[in-house]
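Entry:
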Amino acid sequence: MQSKDKNPVSVKCITVAQLLPKNSIESFDSVAESTSCSDIKILAGDILIRRIAPSYVNYIDKVEGDIYVGNNLIIIRAKSAVDSRYLAFYLNTYIDTIIKQCAKGTAMPTLNRGDLERVMLPLPSLQKQAILGNLWFLSTLRESKTEQLHNLISKKMLYYLKHHIRAPEDKQ
């Protein structure tokens, strides 16, 4: 991740702080040093999981440009017999149970790749996996869009109240 003249190159990186619940990512960090970010690029279809509780599962639908994984994130790539959205759905549904089973007496439970590799995943047909995974993904999109809509409505109402309605003492 360094240019030919040994100067650090700025790259986009997803860190633990940006991985949020409900399959959402807050933003990306631009980092100048490769030590802050791994050399693993995020690809469409990847699943990112926070290693540290609370653990979130995020399915990456689209990737624009080169984005790398930060520390304390696990990246999962589904094998050909598994639909990646189905895998994200399953992990998201059972992540709390998985992390509790893997916690080894620590105050702050953490996951590692080995813990996830030991998870027994029920495998229906690829068609059923795709249906379940797509339903989960679309429901997370719907939740996200609904939340965005509520935030916009709240901002609009506050603007309207602030600029168009005067307090009784202002009318005199």
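Residues 11-170 form a domain with the Adenine-n6-DNA-methyltransferase TaqI; Chain A, domain 2 fold (CATH 3.90.220.20).
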